[in-house]
Write a structure and sequence with these properties.
MCP_transmembrane, transport, repeat, 14 helices, Mitochondrial carrier domain-containing protein, Mitochondrial carrier fold
Length: 332
């Protein structure tokens, strides 16, 4: 129990530290992944963001992840540690010190990712909708709006794709971290301060590699969570206009009825096309298909470089602060 408590506290502190460090690049990533984003590059998008919305915009939605994703980090590290201890308890040779295989590390990471699903989905949904809003909104405002539209169910918009993303990504995350520690020959007897640069580098690599591996899935997840879905749309969408259900008063008001009907019909088709394009994604497959048709394969890698640049320092800090905090708690 004491080990799990230490993992929980250290995971929360490490997660909060990493989130604050990475907030500006996280906001940039959300803007680059948005379906409404122009084709501007990362640097131009960042300049426009600061110019028109101020530097405060770089920390939009940060309260939700500090309260939520830091909590997720706590659950993540508790679950990961618990699964490794389970492997330890069920091994055959109890005489030797337990050193988990990298396969066990990967499986424990996957399990930890699944365990955090209930926490991850609403937290990231609130964060993303706050980040892409051009009107400044607090975390509480965004939460209330989602709840008012769809209740508790609305907070789990994009839930399945979040689980699909998190299980393998956290497996890779811990696998790379543990693997790098072994390559760099981190000496646990020296303490986290003496191993600082090794732990920072291992954590940074874990973040960069795990994000690279699952980035296309994250783009799909983000697009699904960026949508503002009304209950009527969730139930099946609105009726789209067609030339057959146009208001006849529009036709009679034109000087040339034949020409008017043709123009109105074209307008109706355009409206129908636009509404089909802008309607909420019906499924994960629908999101992938429509995103690809609209923007090509490159859409699934839009914002990758800022994410990698963010992932390295964020996870370097997260793991190092986790190790320092854990060491402190164990020495109390």
């Amino acid at each position: 129990m004491a080990e799990s408590f230490n993992d929980f506290v250290a995971g929360w502190v490490g997660g909060a530290a990493g989130i604050i460090v990475g907030s500006p690049l996280d906001v940039l990533k959300a803007r680059l992944q948005s379906p409404t984003h122009t084709r501007d590059g990362a640097w131009q998008t960042l300049r426009s963001l600061v110019k028109y919305e101020g530097t405060d915009a770089l920390f939009k939605g940060v309260l939700a992840p500090v309260a939520g994703l830091a909590g997720l980090n706590a659950i993540l590290f508790v679950s990961y540690g618990s699964l490794l201890r389970m492997f330890d308890e069920h091994r055959l040779d109890q005489a030797l010190p337990f050193v988990p295989t990298l396969g066990q590390v990967y499986m424990a990471g996957c399990g930890a990712g699944i365990a955090g699903f209930l926490f991850t989905t609403p937290t990231e949904l609130i964060k993303i909708q706050a980040q892409i809003s051009r009107v400044p909104k607090s975390t509480w405002q965004v939460t209330r709006e989602i709840w008012a539209r769809n209740g508790a169910r609305g907070l789990y918009q994009g839930g399945w794709i979040t689980m699909i993303r998190d299980a393998p990504s956290y497996g890779v995350y811990f696998w790379v971290y543990e693997g790098m520690k072994r390559i760099l020959e981190v000496d646990s007897t020296l303490g986290s301060s003496a191993n600082a640069w090794k732990l920072l580098f291992a954590g940074g690599m874990a973040g960069a590699v795990s994000w690279t591996v699952i980035y296309p899935i994250d783009v799909v997840k983000s697009r699904l969570q960026m949508q503002v879905i009304a209950p009527s749309q969730r139930a099946g969408g609105s009726v789209l206009p067609s030339p057959n259900n146009l208001d006849t008063s529009v036709l009679s008001s034109r000087s040339n009825p034949g020409r008017s009907y043709s123009t109105s019909a074209t307008e109706a088709v355009n409206i129908q096309t636009n509404r089909q394009r802008d309607r909420p994604y019906a499924s994960i497959k629908d999101c992938i298909t429509r995103s690809y048709k609209a923007d090509g394969i490159g859409v699934f890698f839009r914002g990758l470089w800022p994410t990698i640049l963010r992932g390295f320092p964020v996870n370097a800090v997260t793991f190092w602060v986790y190790e320092v905090t854990l060491e402190f708690l164990e020495n109390l």
